[in-house]
Amino acid sequence: MTKQKIEVSSDICTPCGECCRHFPYIPISEKDINLLIDETGLSKDKFTNMKDIKSGEYFLKFNDNGDCVFFEEKSPTLFSCNVYKARPSICSDYPSSKKQIKYCETERIPKE
């Protein structure tokens, strides 16, 4: 993966990163895949898994601990996305549902 400037969406997200952790089946579209290929120079098999052969649908690969492969823990209270500018739409839209907003509000690590 090409090294690039690490960015986060806001100060609220920087000390948390919970939405990028422990969610190992994040669906992504072909458009998202193409943006990530352009941004990283990686082939899609390096950062995606196929849901199943028949569907043709993909999800992001994740590390053994359940974190997104593009998630970086810089310290115990500082997190970032290595593909922030090209992150999948499901990521850039998060939180968009009442359930996601509630999760974000209750699970977020408070900034000290």
Q: Top keywords for this entry?
A:
single chain, 112 residues, alpha+beta, 3 helices, globular, disordered N terminus
Enumerate how many helices there are, as a single number: 3
Major sheet: arrangement of strands: 1-3-2
Largest sheet descriptor? 3 strands, antiparallel
Whole-angstrom Rg: 14 Å
pLDDT averaged over residues: 79
Total separate domains:
1
Let me know the number of strands: 5
Strand content: 15-25%
Shape verdict: globular
Order of helices and strands: EHEEEEHH
Work out the helicity level: 10-25%
Whole-Å distance between the termini?
32 Å
Low-confidence stretches: 1-8
Report the structural category. Answer: alpha+beta
Please render the helix and strand layout as text.
Elements lengths: L26 E2 L1 H11 L7 E3 L7 E3 L10 E5 L2 E4 L7 H4 L5 H10 L5
Antiparallel strand pairs: 1-3, 2-3, 4-5
3D structure, described in words:
- By secondary structure, the chain is α+β, with helices and mostly antiparallel strands.
- It has one domain.
- It is built from 3 helices and 5 strands.
- The strands form 2 sheets. The chain has a 3-stranded antiparallel sheet with strand order 1-3-2. Strands 4-5 form a two-stranded antiparallel sheet.
- The N terminus is likely disordered.
Short account of what is shown:
The chain has 112 residues and is an alpha+beta fold. It is 22% helix and 15% strand. It has one domain.
